[in-house]
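Hello Y.,

Per our agreement to keep a running log of every chain we model this quarter, I'm adding this entry. I've kept the format consistent with earlier entries: sequence first, then predicted structure.
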Amino acid sequence: MTTALSDRRHAPRTHREIRLAARPAPGAPLTDSLFEIVEVPAPSPQPGQLLVRTRVMSVAAVMRTLMDETTSVPMRSFALGAPLYGPAIGEVVSAPGTAFAPGDLVQHDLGWREFALLDATAAQRVEPGLLPDPAAYLSQGPTAWMAVTRGAEVGPGDTVFVSGAAGGVGSLAGQAARLRGARRVIGSSGSQRKADILRQELGYDAVILRDAGPVEEQLRVAAPQGVDAVIDTVGGEQLQAAIAVANRGARIALVGALGAQLTGSGTPATAIDTFSLLTRSITLRGTVLHADHLDLIPEWHHQFGAGLRDGTLTFPHSRLHGLDNAPRALRELIEGRHTGAVLVEL
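Predicted structure for the entry above:
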């Protein structure tokens, strides 16, 4: 991302994009054969459109779900033989009849290709200098901030449990909980390596290992006085454990279903102890950023930028290089090899 702008503004006659070549079998691992990298004519913008050169894109667990023909998430499935899509930061190459100019940075949802053609209304201008690294606009911080502030309503003195704490949301949710005054922050992870990172680098007080015994027993040890707020990105046994250990009046924010998304096992289902919800006045709230909480995005970006500069926040992420490595990035994300966001720099 350090190449001079003057070297990057001219579109070639062709460019490459990654298409979905086949759908994965239920529960099967992702393989390179599911993707196809093709060279096609570079798109040409009409008035009101932008031609954008991709600089960096992100992959996310939900993309595994979108590879299925039908999904339970409110997003369109990837189409066979068509480019995949996803969040990206790019540089405007041409913008006839719009308020954009060549060299402007924008965020859009047409990743997985070297050049994107989109209507100007589908691009969000990236404010120069707001974040130290433009790639940080691709963090899942807005979702984490939503879960902490509006979903779980974390406040001073709370004990907070974050499931899937090493993921793109969880790695920032713990930090956001601290900003809100949480007294104790507990996370869950699938490996000791990630658990060490969560404690040593991301401020978690304790980490539960997914395969180290019953989650509820581990959570009771980590939170002997119970939990007041929960950010759940996983579902299943971890959500059940959170309800079992939750204090009276606890708030539980549901922001993901990684337990199903990472295995391709279909629609997630979790048995909920409704009696506990009633008798302990526990709030269980589903929260979706792009449905109800878009106003939090600029709020988070300002908070994130300030925190990155003064050292109170970090941006955990892995960065692979080259469009060819985008399938690998998604595969490694699904396999749990990375902590935080997973980005591909073009």
